[in-house]
Amino acid sequence: MAALPGLREPQKGKANHFVMSDEAVLPYREWLPDEAPQIVVLALHGINDSAEAWESPSAMFVNAGIALIAPDQRGFGAATGGGVWPGTEIMLSDAMAMIKQVRDRFPNARLYLAGESMGGAIAMVLAARQNSHWIDGYVLSSPAVWGRREMTVSWRMLLWLANKTVPWLRLNAVRLGLKPSDNEAAFNRKGRPGGALPSASISALAGLTDLMDLALQAAGKCRAPSLCLYGGKDQLVPKRAIAACWHTERAAEATKQVFAYYPGGYHLLQRDHAGAVVTRDIVNWLLDPEAPLLSGADACAHSWLDGTLGKRTRRGRDSIPLIEASGKSDSPTIDARAVLTSGTNNTTARSFTAREHQT
Between 3.40.50.360, 3.50.50.60, 3.40.50.1820, 3.40.50.970, what CATH number should domain 17-331 receive? Predict the structure, then answer.
């Protein structure tokens, strides 16, 4: 497949876009460092979202010299098929096509596939199929792994009945009393023109569930380096689903997988008030996948899985420090300071300090 020419920011309103084999158009945004990047991240958004999902963390990626490319996936944002679930295999095929085109553009860079929620589920399935030799690793933020296997019988029956009788009915997480993030200002920027909150049809949710089934089955099958992040206050992906996924990864001895657990984090981790902490972990992992996470969320994840998180040790202290959401910024300003640390693979890692302020 030929590379797309000119993946730079649009000029005079002209949209950048990927074109699929069936001529579907998937617009995208990108944030590029001044110099040629050695690391490129293709970032997939969640359901009812768009490329704008990656605007908040983009500054920290660019300051680290990492290129970030975020498309509107088919059926969402300004992409072809708005509002209609295109089908799981089509979503996966689109992702593969975009991966190929980005790889053509950056043949010498390390290429990572990142995904939030639904995007994370897509990344998990592709990683398990191991049919993408163009990808060097994966970042899975609050991946949608609430497959039917982890649903109660009543939930499965309700979804089946609703999809058969009112597939057109649209639901909205906020109006259902769910809280995607503690940062309402950042979440509202996801809204459609006119302030309408994004919603999904029952049929789209059924399609998403099919994808989540595959993502849950994919656990333990990824052989490439991956970072999986989850917040303890996530109200959209249940703890039992993530725990099942991570326990499967552990049992498979997937040594290249890093788990990160943020007790104070919500579903939209990077858009939370403390989102800069999460983004900093992602950036530093991309620079050096073998280094411990600066926040300690990796140690926190294992304590959570072991059931020891927050419990007292013989020394009378918590086994690990809790990572709670803090701050009141919806637009963090990032000061990048390089800290030289040489690893055994001669990779130079850099860490970053986030300074939050009101805008």
Answer: 3.40.50.1820
How many other C-beta atoms lie within 10 A of the C-beta of residue 199?
A: 17
What is the token pair recorded at 162?
């609703």
Residue 335: pLDDT over 70:
no
Nearest by Cα to 48 from 163, 139, 152, 178? 178
pTM of the model: 0.82
Domains of the chain: which residue ranges? 17-331
How would you class 276 by CB atoms within 10 Å of its CB: exposed for 0-12, middle for 13-18, buried for 19 or more?
Answer: buried
| DSSP 8-state secondary structure symbol assigned to residue 140 | E
Q: What are phi and psi of 294, to 5 degrees?
A: -65, -30
* C-alpha to C-alpha distance for 276 and 271, rounded to whole angstroms: 8
Contact 273, 327 (CB under 8 A): yes
Look at residue 177 in the predicted model and tell me its pLDDT: 85
